Amino acid sequence: MHITSKGQVTIPLEIRKKLGLLPDTEVEFRLQPKGVLLRRSSKPSRRAERVVKRLRGSASIKMSTDEIMRLTRGE
Q: How far apart are CA 32 and CA 38, in angstroms?
């Protein structure tokens, strides 16, 4: 594994899956006596916020909340 000219490395798929590191997951680096520790950030994730922001306004059918709820409930 090598570091790119931009300082990037690829985290192996097996490690990403095991740790649940999805795209846009915040991680942090901690210096340790014998190297560096990479872990999921302790800050609240903003991934959901970014997903909602991307999807907001993408519906093509104009329905009120009441109409949507009636459809959802099968009324």
A: 10
Residues 6+ apart with CB under 8 A from 29: 36, 37, 38
Q: Give the Å distances, CA to CA, from 63 to 10, 12, 44, 72.
A: 44, 44, 33, 12
pLDDT band at 26 (very low <50, low <70, confident <90, very high): confident
- The alpha carbon dihedral of 42, 44, 45, 50 has a sign of negative
pTM of the full predicted structure? 0.51
Tokens (6 digits) for 74: 């099968």
Contact 68, 53 (CB under 8 A): no
